[in-house]
Amino acid sequence: MFLLLVSFGVVISIARFRITIHGDMLAYRSLFHADRGLRLSEIARARVDVRIFNRTNREYFTFAPPFALVVEPYPEVKDEPLIINLRIFSRKDLAQLFDFFGGKLVNDK
Asked: Please, which residues have CB within 8 angstroms of residue 72's CB and are 6 or more apart in sequence?
């Protein structure tokens, strides 16, 4: 019975993650946060952030995902970056997401 409840909890928590692209609007909902969104015109850049091997001690105590897409708005938008956990989504979904950004998806490496 316990295993069934844990399995149900895992399914429910994964189902909470959602990315929605509607026209020029990107919206993201995670396990602990309500929907947040940005229009493509409000996005300065997007970058993939991999934190598996380069975490500092302070970062071990944060809830940032180890494989994330950081969507940074322009400063005049006055909004926090959108941090999207990429481990939850399929490669097909990620390809569509990356296509949405076009030239705004940068590679810092």
From this structure: 43, 44, 45, 46, 47, 81
The H or E element that residue 22 is part of is strand 18-22
Find the Cα–Cα–Cα–Cα dihedral 74, 77, 78, 80, rounded to 10°.
Answer: -60
Task: Name the token pair of 9.
Answer: 């909890």
d(CA 92, CA 50): 19
pLDDT, tens only, 37-69:
889 999 999 999 887 655 555 544 456 677 888
Q: Torsion angle of alpha carbons 20, 13, 64, 32, nearest 10°?
A: 80
pTM of the model: 0.70
Given a contact cutoff of 8 angstroms between Cβ atoms, the answer to whether 16 and 32 are in contact is no
**E strands within 25-77?**
25-29, 36-39, 43-50, 67-73
Residues 37, 27 contacting (CB under 8 angstroms) = yes
